[in-house]
Design a protein that fits this description.
The chain is α/β, with parallel strands linked by helices. Helix content is 48%, strand content 18%. Helix 6 packs parallel to helix 7, helix 7 packs antiparallel against helix 8 and helix 14 packs across helix 15. The N and C termini lie far apart (44 Å). The structure holds glycine. The site of glycine has 6 residues, from helix 6.
Length: 374
Amino acid sequence: MAVVNVALAGRSYEVRVGRDLFDNFAGQVRPFLERYSADERSVPFVADSNARALFAETLEQSLSWVGLEIDWYEVTPGEGSKSWAELERLTDWLLARGVTRSDHVFALGGGVVGDLVGFACAILKRGCGFVQLPTTLLAQVDSSVGGKTAINASAGKNLIGAFHQPSLVLADTGCLATLPQRELRAGLAEVFKYGLLGDAEFFARVDKDSAAILACDNAVLEATIAHCVGMKARIVAEDERETRDARALLNLGHTFGHALEAETGFGDRLLHGEAVALGLVLAARFSARRDLISLADAENVTDALARAGLRTEISALGLDCDGTVLADHMRHDKKAGGGTVPFILLRALGEAYVARDVELADVAAFMDEQLQAH
Ligand code: GLY
């Protein structure tokens, strides 16, 4: 098992990464069970129906050894669960259970469950504790760590939320073997992102290891996830609320990617990680267009993602729109402010920065080219 500490004054927590952590679940989370052990003997768990079906038995068995049961709250998999209606239903359930500010709620699943539960716990009685049990690669390397929690609004994704850090993240790498390859691959895009934004050597390593990651080789998975989480922990410790540029770098590929997700309806047609992969290619090519990196470097990014089986050409998405429509989605990105949209661009592979001088008209022209290319 690898342990990464997220160092935040008075709110530091561990991210534990390793296989079979759920087998000894009760031991791993002992401090967060105290009140349930002393009192009602059942522990509040929120899970999507897939994660519950896959992991309930292991978790229930581990808790049964310390005399506890799980009280399940189930949500439908997918972005649709990050809604006001689901938040209301969940907070009502937590209140009916009598959850107090010193209790912990357990969030089992991918980013949707983590974001929803984190936000519910941020506002429940002005804040109670929660433990993240991420079961997807994307959630293990990114969304479960760092305290960004949110639901979606009709105006856009993740627009209603709060910073609320978990008390512990247990990333059981064994969960990843249950994921469809498409979802695992989508998570790999976020792994590449870490290399591109700050560690060229890691980017090359992920390129070399992508087949082993997709085959769920545990040693490779553990080392890779711990590396990503280590990078994220350093960034979050430096810039928890994204008030400086450090945390914004984690949005590499996301402004382009969100526009593609918005255009494809935030659903199965294009998964978030798949959009991030395309966004990384676009960020690299746009950086080359501005002479920040060479065209050869931009194509290195494209080739590495393609070798991992990720789509790299937006022309193949069959979008029925032009570059202006996509640039317009970016204008509504929540990072936009004061009439400008900050873009995370590359000065080198492994060196990202926040560019605040990007004209959306330029982006629209670039996207038009990309929609027609290849
Ligand atoms: N997923 C980007 C962040 O946590 O800042």
